[in-house]
User: What shape does this take?
Amino acid sequence: MNRVFITGNEAVAYGALAAGCNFYAGYPITPSSEIMHLMARELPRRGGVFVQVEDEIAAINALIGASWAGSRAMTATSGPGFSLMQEGLGYAVMTETPLVVVDVMRAGPATGQATKPAQGDLMQARWGRHGDQVLPVLAPSSPQECYDLVIRAFTIAEELRTPVVVLSDEFIGHGREVVELAGEVRIPSRRRPRSAREPPFYSEDPRVPPPMPRLGDGFNVLVTGSTHDGFGYRDTRSFDTHYKLVKRIWDKIWLNRDTIFDYEAVGIDDAIIGFVAYGSTARSVAKSVEILRREGIRAGYIKLKTLWPIDTKPIEVLAERVEAIIVPELSLGQLVFDIERAAKNYTKIYSFNKVGGGEPIYPRELVELARKVLSR
Assistant: This one.
């Protein structure tokens, strides 16, 4: 292990390099630009390719081409750039192209507040593409988790042949802490076809992605975002072809939810009040629970490291034990809808929201709310 004092954005870049990322295409945008700067410096030194493109549309499409050529590809952006990438991400879902996109969230809509943190991109990360689709969304809450979860994102991308989104935010991206860099990281290699007769867009087991040929290896493969059969040939009129394709791509993620979903639970065994949070807000929750425990109030929390696909079982368990659940977000409320869906039949749900100005959700605010909720 190598201990370094770095920002969350730098940790993202080092995590990508440790995972074997050898292609980066991007366009600078606050507050993610430091990721691009570090990759621009380090990738050429390590035999990789760095490209500054004209916009985020070009970035996501360059990643798709690089991935089909055999590269491990990543880009990073923030809200406005993430919006421009959505069509390309949908194409990556439909063509089952492994790649990683990091969104360092800032306050919106539009250009909003470019230097201020927010958590308003959750629904966009899940549902920003049109049509029936799903892709994994991971959420670090510290520079260490930026490093660890980017490596995890590459692992999922290669194992399941899917794009993966990592949702960070400005607080995490520019926060500086000690991070332990791994000495060696093993990422599974994507499965290659054994012969030209093995279809690159069909698998008997929906949990297992089909093999992915590499452009230039001699396979006669069509890659299209239109409805296609197992060998990539377009079939845009058939109900059966479209249903089987989209359902398999959907099942590939949801049937592997147990291996994708990750969370951390603290103090929930005896809690009378609970919190559910992610990202930088989860840090304030952790401190709030510590303060409440010192006061004799049994509080606990769940920190979500995976935001999609989400397993609601841990939330249901928490809801059965506590008198109320507080869901703090640096938005007007997006995660809270999942918590209400999972827990409203068991306990009361309270949303606590802040938007803009660069202010965090302070622990004292959550402590005060928890006291009020318990006194009712």
Notes: The mean pLDDT is 97. Residues 266-375 form a domain with the Rossmann fold fold (CATH 3.40.50.920).
